[in-house]
Write a sequence for this structure.
């Protein structure tokens, strides 16, 4: 996204209406919504502003780590999860620069675990309230999906599905054999040229397959080709390479300014509201560091990462797993499976993969060495996989805390502790069994499993009760009147659906509530 | 005849940005003068362990993996996280390699190389499983996992390895891929290889003019 020459530039001493920290799925939609309403808004982004991905993005996994949050995190607990490229991005567009754009919607049951299953908590809002926002987001960013979605036949997508790659075809074949329903997945990448007045024309997906390394032609719906150009057009300012490290407050406790470093120099931007949208690890880290908004004691707690176990197999046919959209098929048949010991459920997705990412899975989850390892790595062009995205329950002891070590910026490194419970283990085992059956039915051999987790969720959860939650359903902090949090930290349960679509829907909903509640005339703030 | 992979690297199918990057990586492999932090003995042991883990002679590549790891430790670059059980990467490698050297000594072995191949593999497997006691203040198997990830990913990222496994995904040609299903993705035809050679010749002619 080119930096517009006429971008509004607010001065530090200007009390802008809102500072938005982070330009990912949480920050970008509301930045647009607020700017469109005429508010004076500034987004602060830690990473770089990529003005020309077609030139700047290499078709290489190692080089494109520049899109991942590489400040070191310490991963602990019994089931340490991976960070960096596993789930965390940086740059104008945030983690959407490297997301896989997989956008199933959650079902109502996923928001009602307490009522339905007597575990965890319910969301303090119903699916019905989010549906109009899902529809709006899907239309705005251009989601490609099937015309008759098996698990909600009335649902319509603005664009036809993307082509299925080899992994998807194999999963389809295996599932057909076993009587499991599948469908092309809803994917936030345009299957045809797509135009929105707010951001112009985007070209169709060319199946390059380096989606997790940054889309070069804007087909994948990252924030920098959708909500952010729209926000700039509406008068927002975006400041890149600016790292937030603190806030200042009025005597009454409200935030008066956001502090950040840019070009080695500390900057103090005055503002009347802050939207903290820095993601499931960085948002709580900042709050813990500032030592605010935590009367509930829940900041950092209830860290969840989806059970993301994968199964891999080798096939006679060449699969060339780098081609096409990595995950292009879905089944939701296991969202609420019967006769199981776990509370929630999972979706399954087909998996293509790039060589270095695959190599890392092989390194961690297979013990092959010597010639056996070399011979297996040689089979890359014949592998295909399936992955699950399973509901993980919130446990207060799974949490983000500040470690004793300092990072290169002088802030304490976050320590994340994750230990899966019996619920998650039995879900993983169940999913593993199903995935392996599918791969075998499709003709796969040399099956193996990678037990892993993905996404960073739940660390500043929303709720109806300030004693047990950090924010309300609109992301408003119970403790600080002019602080809102809008990213996957606020999810009270993980859902089985991948988080980003819901983050964007919540972002718009929070923005609308904010706009409704604002005092109309300037100078009349309390 | 030169490796067709390297032809493709030079062809118009590879973006300028990617070509520069991959060429640099090939060149770095050959040249000396990269930063290093490990002692000579530790580096040698690391080289041997990696040689057992991933015997490149079995596939005809010569990626200097141990040197690449040493350089990354020197540059303090990482993947954005480490196991909380491990100290920072550099210390984990230094202590880990010392621990392995001690294990060899305790077994009466001069060096990793002095072990016959099957015993080297058996030892590596035990280390990976955490079945060897050591004086390191962290679980060795966690460090071994880090080592496995470093070794395998650094190998896979090298254009030599990509050629060895017939990977050409980096040659996305700007137009991307139109056929992605089973049986449709190959660009191994004579026609396409010839195309790549022609493009290289054309460039050479242009450069001379």
């Amino acid at each position: 996204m080119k930096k517009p020459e006429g971008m509004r530039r607010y001065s530090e001493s200007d009390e802008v209406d809102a500072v938005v920290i982070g330009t990912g799925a949480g920050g970008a939609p509301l930045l647009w919504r607020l700017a469109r309403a005429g508010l004076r808004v500034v987004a602060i982004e830690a990473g770089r502003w990529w003005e020309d991905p077609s030139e700047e993005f290499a078709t290489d996994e190692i080089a494109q780590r520049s899109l991942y949050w590489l400040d070191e995190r310490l991963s602990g607990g019994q089931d340490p999860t991976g960070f960096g490229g596993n789930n965390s991005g940086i740059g104008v567009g945030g983690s959407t620069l490297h997301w896989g754009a997989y956008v199933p919607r959650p079902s109502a049951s996923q928001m009602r675990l307490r009522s339905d299953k007597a575990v965890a908590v319910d969301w303090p809002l119903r699916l019905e309230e989010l549906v109009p926002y899902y529809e709006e987001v899907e239309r705005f960013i251009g989601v490609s999906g099937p015309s008759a979605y098996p698990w909600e036949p009335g649902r319509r997508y603005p664009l036809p599905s993307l082509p299925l790659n080899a992994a998807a075809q194999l999963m389809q074949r295996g599932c057909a054999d076993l009587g499991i329903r599948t469908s092309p997945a809803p994917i936030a990448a345009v299957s045809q040229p797509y135009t929105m007045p707010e951001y112009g024309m985007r070209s169709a997906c060319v199946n390059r397959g380096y989606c997790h390394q940054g889309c070069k032609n804007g087909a994948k719906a990252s924030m920098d080709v959708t909500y952010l150009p729209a926000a700039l057009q509406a008068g927002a300012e975006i400041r890149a390479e600016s790292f937030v490290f603190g806030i200042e407050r009025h005597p009454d406790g409200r935030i008066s300014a956001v502090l950040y470093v840019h070009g080695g120099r500390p900057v103090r931007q005055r503002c009347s509201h802050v939207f903290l949208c820095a993601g499931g690890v960085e948002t709580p880290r900042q709050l813990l560091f500032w030592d605010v908004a935590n009367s509930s004691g829940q900041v950092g707690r209830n860290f969840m990462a989806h059970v993301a176990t994968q199964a891999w197999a080798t096939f006679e046919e060449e699969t060339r797993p780098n081609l096409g959209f990595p995950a292009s098929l879905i089944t939701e048949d296991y969202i609420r499976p019967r006769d199981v010991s776990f509370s929630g459920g999972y979706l399954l997705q087909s998996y293509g993969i790039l060589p270095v990412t695959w190599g890392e899975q092989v390194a961690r989850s297979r013990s092959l060495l010597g010639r056996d390892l070399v011979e297996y790595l040689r089979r890359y062009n014949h592998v295909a996989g399936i992955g699950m995205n399973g509901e993980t329950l919130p446990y207060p002891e799974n949490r983000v805390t500040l470690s004793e070590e300092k990072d290169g910026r002088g802030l304490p490194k976050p320590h994340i502790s994750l230990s899966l419970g019996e619920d998650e283990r039995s879900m993983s085992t169940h999913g593993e069994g199903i995935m392996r059956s599918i791969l075998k039915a499709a003709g796969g051999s040399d099956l193996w499993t990678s037990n892993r987790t993905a996404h960073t969720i739940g660390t500043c959860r929303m709720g109806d009760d300030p004693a047990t939650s950090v924010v309300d359903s609109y992301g408003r902090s119970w403790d600080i009147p002019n602080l809102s949090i809008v990213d996957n930290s606020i999810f009270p349960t993980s859902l089985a659906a991948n988080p980003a679509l819901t983050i964007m829907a919540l972002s718009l909903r929070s923005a609308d509530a904010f706009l409704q509640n604002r005092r109309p005339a300037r100078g009349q703030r309390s | 005849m030169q490796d067709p992979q390297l032809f493709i690297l030079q062809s118009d199918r590879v973006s300028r940005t990617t070509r520069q990057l991959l060429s640099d990586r090939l060149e770095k492999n050959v040249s000396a003068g990269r930063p290093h932090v490990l002692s000579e003995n530790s580096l040698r042991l690391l080289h041997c362990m990696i040689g057992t883990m991933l015997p490149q002679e079995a596939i005809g590549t010569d990626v200097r993996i141990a040197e690449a790891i040493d350089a990354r430790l020197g540059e303090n670059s990482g993947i954005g996280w480490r196991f909380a059980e491990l100290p920072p990467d550099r210390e984990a490698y230094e202590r880990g390699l010392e621990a392995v050297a001690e294990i060899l000594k305790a077994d009466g072995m001069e060096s990793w190389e002095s072990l016959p191949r099957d015993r080297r593999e058996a030892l590596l497997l035990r280390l990976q499983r955490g079945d060897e006691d050591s004086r390191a203040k962290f679980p060795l198997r966690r460090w071994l996992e880090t080592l496995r990830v470093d070794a395998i990913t650094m190998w896979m990222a090298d254009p030599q390895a990509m050629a060895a496994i017939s990977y050409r995904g980096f040659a996305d040609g700007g137009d991307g891929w139109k056929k992605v299903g089973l049986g449709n993705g190959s660009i191994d035809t004579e026609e396409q290889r010839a195309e790549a050679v022609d493009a290289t010749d054309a460039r050479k002619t242009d450069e001379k003019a």
Observations:
- Chain B touches chain A through 59 residues (CB under 8 Å).
- Strands of chain B lie at 81-83.
